[in-house]
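tool=predict chain=A
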Amino acid sequence: MKILIAEDEPITLATMEFRLVKDGHEVISAENGQDALAKLTEVTPDLVITDIMMPFASGLEVLSAVKKLNANIPVIVLSAMGQENVVLEAFTLGADDYITKPFSPNELALRVKRFSLRTS
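tool=predict ok
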């Protein structure tokens, strides 16, 4: 699968990228929301993983852009604890899943695998 990850925390981004590449996925990394929006004009990912709170453009903006591009592209949103209202808004905008930070790379891998099984 081709996966776009939008995450402004470098260590979290590197950890997700390492695990997903190890699992055989092609990963496109974006260090903020604006970077993710730009990459969406260049590639069509099979899955998007986006942090909600990012500089320049929020994960909600990334989510909206993905769903406008292709409503069938699944989006997993990442949120810090205590952001229930934002997570609910993400689901209203079409999010397919969410993971609360901090999370384990194994949990991420299992959730991604669920979506890869749908597309294969």
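The chain has a mean pLDDT of 93. Helices lie at 10-22, 33-40, 59-69, 84-92, 105-119.
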